[in-house]
Structures are given as structure tokens and as C-alpha cells.
Design a protein that fits this description.
three-stranded antiparallel sheet; two-stranded antiparallel ribbon; DNA polymerase, domain 1; mainly alpha
């Protein structure tokens, strides 16, 4: 009599481990990508969220921090750190995004906070002579970029992110894409710079061809355009007008890519040139844009035209430059210059 063998039972299959829950910062970045915030906005908001958490000890989750915690943090920014009103408003916007979009909680109603005072400041403007002194102290690519800031009214990042297809030397135009507020606009290309810009375009085309021959020469494309036109990232049209000197390796795509010149290059070059020129005013890259608008208004151009060239959403923003003109709207002269002869000595 044979003994029946017991059927062998296979060991139970282990269930896959659950995926780890995303961290707060990971969720923050995902929601910011859905809202299509710019990388600079995401970085600024992330810094404020980290500062908010550190201010309350660094151990409490923001989900458990109520309106009184938000009020204490914003008041701390105004009283102890004495930040500008725009800085405090940016911190508040970051916290509103955190509660509304990331934590999916009602935005805390904040009352009784100490608001930073918003001063009324006039922009620093250089005279035409000072602009010329500044530009004479610069050389090469930084000089050409500074000339575009002043001659076309570009913002710093708008100048850095110009591509070859945005330059039209025949029509004398620059097309600014995805500027402030994700808006495009057209501004002038100074006639005095057309030859230098054409030379810069030729240099970039040669550089792109050399890097492509070595297996690189790729540039990042906006949005999902790299999937729609995968070969465009190596085309001349999408190449940066002011490329970086070195390439970097992009791990996800396994490509050697070229970035545009970093903004800090021009941010350091402009104040240094102002010091060498002996200009005592505070001079930044944005000062050249202020000077562009002021000098156009001094020349008699319509304020609506200047508004379009600058890309301002509201004409009231452009009206700020009317306060720094050499002459007011009526060409008023001081009574000391007209009615009196001041004795010398």
C-alpha cells in the first residue's frame, strides 16, 4: 500500500512594498509644475517655505501650523528682518500656494500682521554721457549684451535667453519670447548693433556645428517641443545667441547640452564697469533698462509706444519714468534760473 504524497505548497508570494509617500518638497515641486510656474518662482517659493518651517522649529509639519503661525512669521519678516514690502508679499504668496495647492487646505485668514512699508522710490537713471562712459569700459560679449539692455530695453534674463531665431537683422527687430508674465513682445534692434549681432550669429553657428561634430551641441527646448521636434535641439534656429563657454552633461537625455550665459556674468560686469568709469550712482543691469525708457520719453516718443517696447502690462508702470525726466511735462524752469542772478562767491 503506497502512501499518497502530500502536495507541495508554493510559498506565498510577497506583496510589493508600497511606494514611499512623496515628501512635502516633492509634492510642492509637482504642484508648481502643474501651475507652470517659472523655475525662479519655484525656487523663491521653496526658500520661503523652508524658512517658514525653520522659523517654527523645523519639526512641525505645516499642516499643523495655523493662521497665528503665518501671522508670526510675516510679522517677523517686517520687524526683525525689515524686508521690503514686495519681499513680504512674495513670502505670503508662497505660503498661500503651500496651503491651497500643496496641502489642499483653506488658506489661513491672516489678520493683524505688521506689513512692511512700501516706499515710493524713483528708478536710478544714467545720463547719455554716463551710458557711453559705462559701455566704453566693457569689452566683448558683455559689452554687446549691455548695449542690448540699453538699446532695446531688455530685462537681464530676456537678453540671456535670446535665440538665433529671435533676431531679425533685416527688419531690425528682436522678438522677446516668454518674457515676464509669460508674454511675448517685439522690440527694436538698434541699427548700430546690426553688424555686431550678425557677427555674433555667425560665431554661434560655427560653435554649434563644432560641438555637434563632437556629439554635443544640444540645447534645451521649451515645454514638450523636444518630443514634437526632437532634431530641433541641434538646429541653429534654437541655439542661444549668447551661449555658455562650456557644455554640461544632461543625465536623463544622455546629451551634452549648451546653456545660455549665466546672468551673474553680466550682473558682475556692469557694476565693475561703472566703478572703472567713475560713476557714483548705483548701477545694475536694470539701470540700463530704466535709462532706455527715460531717454525715449525725453526724445518725445509716446508713452504707449514705450509701454509696448518695455512689455509693461499697465501704462501706470511706464508712467514712473515721467518723474525722472530732465524736464517736466510743462518744461518748468526753476525761478532761481529765470528771475534772479545769483552772486558769485
Amino acid at each position: 500500500m503506497s502512501i499518497p504524497s502530500t502536495p507541495t505548497q508554493s510559498p506565498p508570494t510577497a506583496l510589493p512594498a508600497p511606494a514611499p509617500a512623496p515628501t512635502l518638497i516633492e509634492t510642492f515641486r509637482d504642484r508648481a509644475a502643474v501651475r507652470r510656474y517659472s523655475p525662479r518662482t519655484v525656487q523663491a517659493y521653496e526658500r520661503w517655505v523652508r524658512a517658514y518651517i525653520r522659523y517654527h522649529g523645523g519639526q512641525t509639519h505645516p499642516r499643523h501650523l495655523g493662521p497665528e503661525c503665518v501671522r508670526a512669521f510675516l510679522t517677523h519678516l517686517a520687524r526683525e528682518r525689515q524686508v521690503a514690502a514686495s519681499t513680504q508679499n512674495q513670502a505670503l504668496a508662497a505660503l498661500c500656494f503651500l496651503y491651497r495647492d500643496v496641502l489642499e487646505q483653506p488658506v489661513p485668514t491672516v489678520v493683524g500682521i505688521t506689513h512692511a512699508k512700501k516706499p515710493h522710490r524713483l528708478p536710478n537713471v544714467l545720463s547719455r554721457e554716463e551710458v557711453m562712459l559705462l559701455l566704453r569700459e566693457m569689452r566683448g560679449t558683455t559689452q554687446l549684451m549691455a548695449m542690448l539692455l540699453y538699446g532695446s530695453g531688455l530685462r537681464l534674463l530676456e537678453c540671456c535667453q535670446l535665440r538665433l531665431k529671435d533676431v531679425d537683422t533685416v527688419r531690425g527687430e528682436l522678438r522677446v519670447r516668454n518674457g515676464k508674465g509669460a508674454r511675448d513682445r517685439v522690440t527694436m534692434l538698434p541699427a548700430a548693433l546690426r553688424e555686431r549681432i550678425a557677427h555674433q550669429v555667425a560665431v554661434v553657428r560655427r560653435l554649434t556645428s563644432m560641438r555637434a561634430a563632437r556629439g554635443g551641441g544640444y540645447v534645451v527646448l521649451p515645454g514638450a517641443f523636444d518630443r514634437k521636434a526632437p532634431h530641433a535641439s541641434r538646429g541653429w534656429a534654437w541655439a542661444w545667441l549668447f551661449p555658455s563657454r562650456t557644455e554640461y552633461y544632461h543625465e536623463p537625455s544622455h546629451q551634452y547640452r549648451t546653456h545660455h550665459v549665466h546672468p551673474t556674468v553680466l550682473q558682475k560686469a556692469v557694476p565693475a564697469a561703472a566703478r572703472r568709469a567713475g560713476i557714483v550712482k548705483r548701477v545694475t543691469c536694470h539701470t540700463l533698462r530704466h535709462s532706455f525708457a527715460t531717454h525715449l520719453l525725453e526724445s518725445g516718443y509716446d508713452i504707449r509706444t514705450v509701454q509696448e517696447l518695455l512689455g509693461h502690462r499697465d501704462v501706470s508702470t511706464t508712467m514712473l519714468y515721467t518723474h525722472v525726466l530732465n524736464k517736466g511735462g510743462l518744461g518748468v524752469r526753476s525761478p532761481l534760473d529765470v528771475e534772479m542772478r545769483v552772486p558769485v562767491g
